[in-house]
Amino acid sequence: MNWITIAQVSDCPPGSSRECIAAGHIVALFNVDGQFYALDGLCPHQGGPLGKGRLTGCVVTCPWHGFQFDVTSGQHQTSKSLVHASFPVRVTGDEVQVGIEEP
Ligand code: FES
Fold first, then answer.
1. Which of 59, 56, 60 is nearest to 19 (CA)?
2. Would the N or C end of the chain have less CB density within 10 A of its end CB?
3. Which atom of ligand 1 is nearest to the CA of 48?
4. What is the full DSSP assignment across the chain?
5. What are the structural domains, with CATH classification, of the chain?
6. What's the rounded mean pLDDT across residues 36-49?
7. Which atom of ligand 1 is nearest to the CA of 63?
8. Are 78 and 90 in contact (CB under 8 A)?
């Protein structure tokens, strides 16, 4: 696992989302009450930018057509069988890092 810095803690305040790039992956970063979570940044519907979605509590709404996911688990809010890919996140000092599996 490679840990890659994608943001500073201050870049993504509580209640916000942010689109980042890590090792060629588009990553959607979310801050829920001070806890960071990361999902694959491409919405599984048609590739919309989840990192530019609106975060309400722990649920992000895709800006393109409104799919909603729990950012803590990737769970789609109405389709139980759809769980979007996520990345592990850690905070080291002021840096937010995501873990990317090596190929
Ligand atoms: S691309 Fe996200 S809801 Fe359609």
1. 60
2. C
3. 1
4. -EEEEEEEGGGS-TT-EEEEEETTEEEEEEEETTEEEEEESB-TTT--BGGGSEEETTEEE-TTT--EEETTT-BBSS-TT-B--EE-EEEETTEEEEEE---
5. 2-100 (2.102.10.10)
6. 98
7. 2
8. no
Residue nearest to atom 3 of ligand 1 (CA): 65
pTM of the model: 0.96
Residue type, 19: E
How many angstroms does the Cα of residue 66 sit away from the middle of ligand 1?
6
Q: Is 39 in the pocket of ligand 1 (CB under 6 A)?
A: no
Q: What percent of the chain has pLDDT over 90?
A: 97
> Which atom of ligand 1 is nearest to 47's Cα?
1
**CA distances (Å), origin 9, targets 58, 82, 88:** 18, 29, 16
C-beta of 46 in contact with ligand 1 (< 6 A): yes
Give the tokens for residue 14.
């509580």
